[in-house]
Amino acid sequence: MSRLPAAAMPMSYLHTVGPAADPVTRLGWGLGLISVAVVVIITTLLLGAVLRKRDAAGQGNEVARDGGGLRWIYIGVGISSVVLAACAIWTLLTLTAVAHPATKPAFTVRVTGLQWWWRMRYENGDAGQVFTTANELHIPVGQPVRLELESGDVIHSFWVPQLGGKTDTIPGQTNVSWFQADRPGVYRGQCAEYCGEQHAHMALQVVAEPPAAFQAWWQAQLAAAVPAPAAGPAAVGAALVQARCSACHTVRGTEAGGIVGPDLTHLASRRTIAGGTLPNDGPHLADWIAHSQRIKPGTKMPEFAFSAGDLAAVVAYLTTLR
Fold first, then answer.
1. 145-151 and 156-159 as β-strands: parallel, antiparallel, unpaired?
2. pLDDT tens-digit profile of 141-190?
3. Are the C-beta atoms of residues 169 and 158 closer than 8 Å to each other?
4. What is the rounded distance in angstroms from the CA atom of residue 195 to the CA atom of residue 113?
5. Can you tell me the distance from the alpha carbon of 264 to that of 96, in angstroms, rounded to the nearest whole number?
6. Which of 49, 224, 267, 298 is 20 to 30 A from 197 via CA?
7. 76: containing domain
């Protein structure tokens, strides 16, 4: 099976869409252009000096020295100092601009980096409005979101380049960051700190949508899982999930309450599975359950030796969890 995730915008830090990232992008382009200008100027002056010396040598004359060279050194040092000071001031102003959002964040998401996936816990001060999801972060367009970043095992680094800079997740420590999307879209993120064998397959997606659509998604996530059918393959699958998967996974509204792996309550509503490695559809879900160690070697997700019929039943149930 291919490992192409559901469509998302290219992961680029050159085109950003929020106030936590735009000032850094402008700074990056500005410093890049200044650096290119410096290289061009120095190269031009060096070539001019070399060609001038060759012309003088060809005529059998020495290059005239009028004692004004020191003056040009002073001028060059002065210009360089002004440019470097301006760059330093611009950098400090940019860091100040992205340190805190201009308005109070709409809510907080506690993001936990784990080998090799992301747990997202949504909080807004009301215990009845708290829920947990995985690998997919929904946010409302035009509103800042506070991020509390932690790790459950090793050091990871949370990075959604179009929305903000990198922030490490460190065991035993909570780091705080924020971002905001000013345009609807799906933005790809990635762990940016080598964290083990499957570091490259530790991705996430940020779905930015209009506030009304986001609120509808939030309310849907608060609901318990869709009740299993009374009969049929999905009913058989529900029993198998309870018997084989509940020690690691939670399905709210059932007796499954494990916390080792992702919360499966609304699994079918997500765009990807396996930490962004696979699209979330029936065939890939079946492949992941049966061959997790082939797809993502070293992951804590074990391979299950289900019969073909039982595997189909488990997938039939999991695809109802919207």
1. unpaired
2. 999 999 999 999 999 999 999 999 899 999 999 999 999 999 999 999 99
3. yes
4. 10
5. 39
6. 267
7. 22-99
